[in-house]
Amino acid sequence: MLEKLGRNLPCWCGSGKKYKTCHMAMDERLSEYRFRGIPTPSRKMIKNQEQIAKIRESCKVNVAVLDAVAAAIRPGMTTKEIDEIVYGTTTAMGAIPAPLHYQGFPYSVCTSVNEQICHGFPSEKVVLREGDIINVDCSSILDGYFSDSSRMFCIGEVPPEKRKLVEVTKECVDLGLEAVKPWAMLSDVARAVYDHATANGYSVVPDIGGHGVGIAFHEDPFVCYVPGRGEDMVLAPGMMFTIEPMVNMGGAAHYTDKQNGWEVYTKDGQPSAQWEIMVLVTEDGHEVLSW
Ligand code: MF3
Ligand code: CO
User: Fold this and answer.
1) From 2, 117, 152, 184, which residue has the greatest number of CB atoms within 10 Å?
2) Angstrom distance (rounded) from CA 79 to CA 208
3) Please, what sign has the CA dihedral across residues 146, 175, 226, 110?
4) Which residue lies with its CA nearest to atom 12 of ligand 1?
5) Phi-psi region for residue 104, left (φ > 0), alpha (ψ -120 to 50) or beta?
């Protein structure tokens, strides 16, 4: 049960403003949704302006790190070299790569090549070859605030069907983003992503997906891109989460490397693509924070 705040007391969001001039109107609207049986975000999912400003700065680092990777990536490069670029660029900007030591993850970035779905380990043994597709997933911590986004890269000439997988997956993210606005549903994002992926004959990984982010690396809600499979709730200004569908050319089935417990591969060996952006729900739509 949510506690009812006095109109003149400081808002629960920590802004220091009076409740009546801060989140009171939003709370009233959310309680109408709950009355109709529609799940609503918890207060923990709503960031205040101060937090948003800090997270924006973290996102600037994350975008710069991905830009540095984009400028350097080429055939013949090892994924270990990408790890070095990420570590070097992030720390030079006064930030920390969030993956490093996260639940035992041993590198600064995830590099997932071809049939690797996610959480690929950078390695000096993995040399990028013409025709490869790779997801580079960067996350940064600046002043305690988290950012998280990833891009696909096509290495040299990539066969058209793999290139199409990469392009359609990007379109899925763009379509999901269009669905992000206050008082829409989180499942609208899933529907937009899922419909476009499946219309192109692809599958969407149902059990690994997006998440709230900003104060911690992974916050609630879990953002699923298979409608009906994930958490659903109405979107409200101040929510922040990732859109990061994993789209497979073949089936959605996958397995995790038993030795390291991290690297996820498609079961059928067909390629997988993923793009990740970090988005904020604003009063009148959304703001992309990291891409
Ligand atoms: N960046 C990934 C995500 O999008 C998180 C990977 S966890 C790590 O959520 F430890 F592998 F980095
Ligand atoms: Co993420």
Assistant:
1) 117
2) 23
3) negative
4) 99
5) left
Which atom from ligand 1 is nearest to the alpha carbon of 98? 12
Strand partners, 96: 141
Q: Is 110 in the pocket of ligand 1 (CB under 6 A)?
A: yes
DSSP state of 104: G
Residue 237 identity: P
Return the H-helix or E-strand segment holding 137: strand 133-142
Q: Please, which residues bridge with residue 86 across strands?
A: none
- pLDDT tens digit sequence for 208-257: 999 999 999 999 999 999 999 989 999 999 999 999 999 999 999 999 99
**3-state SS string for 8-76:** CCECCCCCCCEHHHCCHHHHHHHHHHHHCCCCCCCHHHCCCHHHHHHHHHHHHHHHHHHHHHHHHCCCC
The CB-based long-range contact list for 259-263 (8 Å cut-off, 24+ gap) reads 260/121, 262/105, 262/119, 262/121, 263/112, 263/116, 263/119, 263/120, 263/121
d(Cα 115, Cα 118) in Å, to the nearest integer?
9
Residue 194's H or E segment, with its range, is helix 186-199
Q: Are 264 and 256 within 8 A, CB to CB?
A: yes
Q: How many Å apart are CA 242 and CA 74, to the nearest integer?
A: 27
Residue carrying the six token digits 């009171």: 24
Give the tens place of pLDDT for each residue, 97-131. Answer: 999 999 999 999 999 999 999 999 999 999 999 99
Q: pTM for the full model? A: 0.97
Q: Is 244 in the pocket of ligand 1 (CB under 6 A)?
A: yes
Hey, whose CA ends up nearest to atom 7 of ligand 1? 99
Ligand 1: residue whose CA is nearest its atom 1: 137
